[in-house]
Amino acid sequence: MKLDKGNPLAFKSPKIERLDKAYSALIEIVKEYAERENLSEEDVLMLTQLLVEVYSFKKAEYIIDHKLNRIGLYLNTAFCKAFNLEEEDNKRQYTDLLYLKHTKQLLTNE
C-alpha cells in the first residue's frame, strides 16, 4: 500500500488498484459499444455517469474500510495498554526466554 504524505486519503491498496483497472476497462468497453451501436451522446453520457457513480461509491467504501480497520487496531492496542492488558502473544514473547544475568545462561521457560 502506497501512502501519499500530502493527502491522507490518497493511497493505493490492491483493492483500489483492481477497481481502477476495472473502471478503465469498462469505460473503454462503453466507448467501443457506443461506436458499434451508434448510441447517442446522451446514452453514452448516462452510462459513463452510472459507471462514475458506482466507481466513486466503491472507492469510498474501500477507503473507509481501510481507515476504520486501522482505527480499530489502534483503539485495541490503546485499550490494552491503558488497562494494562497485554495480548496473549505479547505475554508469551516475554516469558519464553529467561536470561540469568549472573550465570550468563539462556534458559527456556516452559
Structure summary:
This protein has 110 residues and is mainly alpha-helical.
List the helices and strands and how they pair.
Layout: E1 2-3, E2 11-12, H1 14-37, H2 41-82, H3 88-96, E3 97-100, E4 105-108
Antiparallel strand pairs: 1-2, 3-4
Provide a descriptive summary of the structure in words.
- With 110 residues, this protein is mostly helical.
- The protein has a domain at 13-85.
- The chain contains three helices and four strands.
- The protein has helices at residues 14-37, 41-82, 88-96, and strands at residues 2-3, 11-12, 97-100, 105-108.
- The strands form two sheets. A two-stranded antiparallel sheet has the order 1-2. A two-stranded antiparallel ribbon has the order 3-4.
- Helix 1 packs antiparallel against helix 2 (41-82).
- The longest helix is centred in the middle third of the chain and has 42 residues, at 41-82.
- It is rod-shaped.
- The two termini are 39 Å apart.
- Residues 99-110 have low confidence and may be disordered.
